[in-house]
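Reviewers of the previous submission asked for a worked example of the structure-prediction workflow described in the proposal, so we include one complete record here. The input consisted solely of the amino acid sequence. No template or homolog information was supplied to the procedure at any stage.
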Amino acid sequence: MNKLIECVPNISEGRRPEVVAECVSAVASVEGVKVLHFTSDYDHNRTVITFVGEPEKVIESAVRLCKKASELIDLRIHSGEHPRMGAVDVCPFIPVKNVSQEEIVEYAKLAGKRIWEEAGVPVYLYEKAASAPHRVNLADVRKGQFEGLGEKTSLPEWQPDFGTSFHPSAGITIVGAREFLIAFNIELDTDDVEIAKKIAKTIRFSSGGYPCVKALGLMLHKTNTAQVSINFTDYKVTSLHTVVDKVREEAKKYGTTVKCTELIGLSPMKALIQSAAHYLEIKYFDYEKQVFENHLI
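From that input alone, the workflow returned the following C-alpha cells.
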C-alpha cells in the first residue's frame, strides 16, 4: 500500500510574492508531490506551505525548498512579528496514510541530513524527532531567534543535529515529526498588544492554560490590530471552540472583543464541525454517524 505523508514548512517571507512563488514552485517541481495550500502574512512576514506525497518525494521537495529559500531569503535584513530562526524556519513531517510515528521520525532525520548536505543549512530536530529532551519544544529550540544563533550555537548543548554553527543568511532550519497541527489566529478589536499577550499567557499550556495549546500575543501593524496567535497541537484534546470562548471571555475583561478569527493553512474537517456543533448547540451530536460525507464510499 502506498505511503502518504504531509509536510508543512514555514518560510520567513510573506511580503515578496515573487519570492514566495519561486519557493512554492521548488516544492511543486517534484513529480508526484501535490501542493495543497499556501498562505502568506505580511505582518508575520511568513508563508505556510502544505504539500503531500510519498515519503521520498516529499523529502526531495523539502530539500529543494531549502535550497531555493536559502538563495532568496536573507535573515540579516528580515523583520516580522513571528519568531524565526531560519529562511525555512520550521519543516515538520506528519503521517497521513500507512505511515507509523517511528517511520515519520526517520523521514524527518533523513530530510535534516539532506538539508545540511545539499542546501548547506544546519538543522535542529524537534518534537518526536528531537535528539534530546530540551529540543522537543519548538519554542525552546527557536529561543534567541536568528539574531541569537552565534551565542546559542557556541553552547555544547545547542550544537545543530546536522551541520555546524549556522548559515550566515539562512540561519538554521528546524525539522521535526509531529501530529496534525492547527494554526489559528484570533484578532482583537484593540490596538493594545499587551492585552493579546496577557490572553495568550492565560490560554497556553506552558503558562497553566489548556493542554496542547501554544499561543503568542502579536501586533499586526498593517491593520493596527492586536492578535492572539495559536497552535493547537491536538484538537481532540482541546477544541477550537473551547479556546475561542475563553478568549472572548478574557477579552471582555479588558474591555474589548474578538474582531475575527483566521485559519492558517489546512484543518481536519472534524475540528471545524466540532465547533459548528458546539455553537449550534446540537444535542447528542455524533460526528461519525451524522455527517453525510462520512457515509460516502
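The first strand starts at residue 4 and ends at 7. We consider this example representative of the routine output the project will generate in years two and three.
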